[in-house]
Amino acid sequence: MNKQTIHHLSHTDLDGYSCQLVMRHTPYKLLNYNANYGAEVKQTLELMLQNIIGSTEDTTLLITDLNLTAEESKWLNSEVEKLGNNKKRVTLLLLDHHGTGEESAQKYPWYFLDTSRSATKITYDYAKEHFSLDAPEWMQHYVAIVNAVDLWKMEEHADFEYGKVCMRLISEMRELNKIMFPLEDNYYKLSLLFEATKYMELEDAPILLDEKIHLIKKDFFKTEKNDTLDNLATTYIVKLLGDARETKTIYYKGYRGYLSYGVGNTSIIGNGFLLTYPEYDFIVDVSFKGTLSLRANNGVNVATISKEWCSGGGHPNAAGGRIVGFKEQFRYDLVKQQIEKIINEKEAVAGELEYKKEA
Length: 359
Description:
The protein has helices spanning 14-23, 39-53, 70-85, 102-107, 119-130, 139-150, 157-171, 182-196, 205-221, 229-243, 245-248, 266-276, 302-310, 332-349; strands at 5-10, 29-34, 59-64, 90-96, 111-113, 249-252, 255-261, 282-286, 291-296, 313-315, 318-322. It has 359 residues and is an alpha/beta fold. It folds into 2 domains: 5-221, Alpha-Beta Complex (inorganic pyrophosphatase (n-terminal core)), CATH 3.90.1640; 247-349, Diaminopimelate Epimerase, Chain A, domain 1 (Roll), CATH 3.10.310.30. Strand 7 (255-261), helix 12 and strand 8 form a beta-alpha-beta unit. The chain is globular. It starts with a strand and ends in a 10-residue tail after the last helix.
């Protein structure tokens, strides 16, 4: 089975990411995805199926720490059966502990449900038996820590307290954006959780980890030069934006723009991007609610663009607005489709306007 690829979808909390940390120690090629409940699960599963269709390898589609509704389970089971009918060898497996998945668990043999263990503990036990898990020395204790805090076993005091700090470590990792940079964001979170395993056997471990969080974040982003965490993360993000130019570039009336989604901090990150990549005339960041934040560096009047796109406004180098009817998405490609549709519509009706700032 080690020639297979495992497409692994997990939740966006400590338990979910810890399932993926466990699976890191199996001998398979792993492609990680993360989603919260609601529409995000369906959109992510659709993306996973697209990626599986485009591959030639035998595949396991693994879901951990997420329960599917009866409708989602029926749909996914049908999609995997279609792949099988088209000669794609796909194994479907769900490992979860949420009781709300009981209806699906009773109906589908691939749906494994056990409410007595955290998803991390289920994944750990299952991987030892079925996935050739090569567990390092720290893993058993780490799994017990996640199990204690996820099931809220306060009587297991030392593990519970350490788990609380690990839980906050995940919840406060806001430096990266998992929709814009899903692979990098996943790697960031798993890397910091791995760093957390180094302190759990030490005296006053929860306090020690609590004090180390800022430093281990900085160490992740640090290169040759030390700086504030904000500046280190900004440099890292600007490079990620630049590396993704091929798929993130948009054009409006001959002007080259960069489209980001949910990155935020546009004054710092946006301006940093424009200084690093002067071939771009503007950058626009769209929030999850459809708010636009545009920046330029004297190459184009973004106040005019904002006005034309969504009746917004601002200054020539800094403007904003809000797209009425914007549909929140959990995949970048779907966001870009929405924005390019708006651009095409506006270009079709707008007259020739001069955007360049006058000297």
